[in-house]
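User: For documentation purposes, I need each entry recorded in a consistent format: the amino acid sequence on its own, followed directly by the corresponding structure tokens. There are two entries in this batch. Please keep commentary to a minimum and don't merge the entries.

Assistant: Recorded as requested. Entry 1:
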Amino acid sequence: MAKLIGSKGAYIALSAALVATVGAGVTAYSKAVKTAGESYDLNIGSAEPLDVSIPDTLPTDLKQTGVAKDKPSDSSSQEDSSSEPPLEVKTQPNVMPVNGEILQPFSGGELVKSETLGIWKTHDGVDIAAERGTPVRAMNRGEVTAVAEDPLWGNTVIIDHGSGLMGYYYNLSSGVAVKEGDSVQAGQTIGAVGDSAEIEAAMASHLHFGLKKNGEWIDPVNYINPSSK
């Protein structure tokens, strides 16, 4: 009996030890799980919140497309147009410097025989018959750029009429009524017909009147009165 009890006691002691061991393991596992959970909760709580705010402006590639927009003014085209030569503006009516017969017309670059020199040359203006002393008028408003005594053309007045137009009044008398820098109006007297042009001395009394447009000789009569041709 003593042996039997001794054996059972050993088994009971062993079983108790096992139960104690298992219980300790379960307790340790539960504690570990609880600790892990608390650690997880702490990590979540300490994490920075996600930024889910909506920005005030959207990126360029997300903006709405296909919306009509006002086109900016093309300032470059305005600059190009402003750099173009201004249109000619006649602020006053053109007038013939003197009234009379055309003794020698504008030759338009063709050669004609000079009555005085006896040679063939271009005639770059018009010779308008007029008695000596006849008042010579400015064709239009402008500024006197030169008053001179030319060795061939005699007493001369040159007027800048604007828009690239220059007037040449040759064969005047010595009593010129204007000076360089003067402003004149259409029809204003600038001098009188004379006989000072040696290059046309063989001709009857007249005014030699020439016009240049942008540096090129043009027909004065046709310019003043386009319907004359």
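Entry 2:
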Amino acid sequence: MNTTSTKAANKLLVQHWQEGTTLAALPPALRPTERAQGYAIQAQLEALSPQPLFGWKIAATSTAGQQHIGIDGPIAGRLLAEMVYANGDTLPFGANRMRVAEAEFAFRMGHDLPPRATPYALGEVLDAVSALYLAIEVPDSRYTDFATVGAAQLIADNACGHQFVLGPQAPDLWRQLDLASHRVVGKVGQRLEREGIGANVLGDQRIALTWLANELSTLGITLAAGQTVTTGTCLVPLEFEPQDTVSMDFGVLGQVSCGFSAA
């Protein structure tokens, strides 16, 4: 794929995102068949925003998440500043078709991790982290049947990126905790409650963060200081409806919540 086709593919996906519509698949001439082609299409998203890239998201870090979108491993997407909401905000419901909210650990980077030939080790990546935040991700897809289009097209569609709620910064004690066994409880109003643990995210959220640093490195991309990486859902995504309130309780680390507007 050349720059013209990647721009055209991105433009088509963004049009569906903005209009709240879906397509069965990208047209054959614009359809990525490899992950790298999907990332090349996704990269065109950055030109949409006048602000610096807010960060990155990781999709399909749990077995449930992989089954939900029909792939067998994680994929990365971009967090644009325009996708980010504050703790307690009411998010526009719009044409959201997935209608699920995810409890996530989000890491703020303190210094750059530039591309290099050798993979980053977990310790190196954690040394580059300045803070941990609690977060809610609200994914969605521009494909009518997102579970059948495959990883390359899902990457092109920003790994199902849609809305992101940045909650409070966790106390520094997070570095002393076993995040893999840390319990998180999610609720939708008073009608639905689920719990999960950090190990649902590639075995450990810190492993997921390391995966992201190395995925970007292979693409020639720096994971930059100041960027935030949200690492995937700790629990089975919570189904919500218009005007619902969603809350995620991370125990000693704090809580994060959001509401949704009428449809």
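Summary note for entry 2:
Residues 3-260 form a domain with the Fumarylacetoacetate hydrolase; domain 2 fold (CATH 3.90.850.10).
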